[in-house]
Structures are given as C-alpha cells and as structure tokens.
C-alpha cells in the first residue's frame, strides 16, 4: 500500500500536501481502491470558505457516490480541471495527477489534528 510519508491524512481517507498556507487535497490509494473505478468528481465549492468537516464535493464510482470532507478550514482556491475529462487519474495516480482541490488554509493549528503516514497506516490496517 502506497502511503507517502511527506503527506498528512484524515480518517476519511484523504491526503493533504501542505506548502506554506496552501493545502493540496485528494483521496488516498486505499480509498480509491475501496471505491473502484472513479467515473466523476464533483466539486462545486470553488471560491467558497468552508469549515473543517464540511462537504466540499463528491466522488462517483461505478457502484457508489462518496462525499469529500474538508480536512482543514479554508477557501477552495483551485479545482483540478483535468478530472473533468479524466476522472480515472484518481485511480491511476491518486497522489499526483489525481489531486482534487487546493485550499488556502485559514487555521494552521488544525494541521496538528491530521494523521501522519504511520498513524494512517495503523488506521487502515485496523
């Protein structure tokens, strides 16, 4: 299982890459594997400020639709438009081309609540 050590994680199986005050967010390799083939990514919260835990979009797989939750409070400043034509990037490259949104972080103290790679690995292994 690929769990990059330079990223942070949530219990909702999202990964977060933090660069200064901007966080890039996607779903983990584990999550995309559980969902199966991704057919659509819906994010209609661009330019909105959302609180930690709020839904910022959804990901649709062949058999299910799953909400995407904000790992941190902030403003959604970018959506990965490549996913409109190629949602399968979430499956083939979840930590690269499959990123979903970029977020301007409002409260950097929330970063402390995120999981590191080791804690996330323990979570998915039960």
Give the arrangement of secondary structure elements.
Layout: E1 8-9, E2 14-19, E3 22-27, H1 29-35, E4 38-42, E5 49-50, E6 55-61, E7 65-69, E8 74-79, H2 82-85, H3 89-92, E9 101-105, H4 117-125
Can you walk me through this structure?
By secondary structure, the protein is of the alpha+beta class. The protein has one domain: RNA polymerase II/Efflux pump adaptor protein, barrel-sandwich hybrid domain (OB fold (Dihydrolipoamide Acetyltransferase, E2P)), CATH 2.40.50. Helices cover 19% and strands 35% of the residues. The protein contains four helices and nine strands. The protein has helices spanning 29-35, 82-85, 89-92, 117-125; strands at residues 8-9, 14-19, 22-27, 38-42, 49-50, 55-61, 65-69, 74-79, 101-105. The strands form two sheets. The chain has a six-stranded antiparallel β-sheet. Strands 4-6-7 form a three-stranded antiparallel β-sheet. A hairpin with a 3-residue loop joins strand 6 and strand 7 (65-69). The longest helix has 9 residues, at 117-125. The two termini are 14 Å apart.
């Amino acid at each position: 299982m690929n769990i990059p050590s330079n990223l942070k994680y949530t219990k909702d199986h999202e990964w977060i890459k933090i660069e200064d005050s901007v966080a890039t967010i996607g779903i983990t390799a584990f999550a995309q594997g559980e969902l199966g083939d991704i057919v659509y990514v819906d994010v209609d919260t661009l330019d909105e400020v959302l609180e930690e835990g709020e839904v910022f979009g959804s990901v649709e797989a062949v058999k299910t639709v799953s909400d995407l939750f904000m790992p941190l409070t902030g403003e959604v400043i970018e959506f990965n438009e490549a996913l409109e034509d190629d949602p399968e990037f979430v499956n083939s490259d979840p930590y690269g081309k499959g990123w979903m949104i970029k977020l301007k972080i409002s409260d950097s103290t929330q970063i402390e609540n995120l999981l590191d790679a080791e804690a996330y690995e323990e979570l998915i292994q039960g």
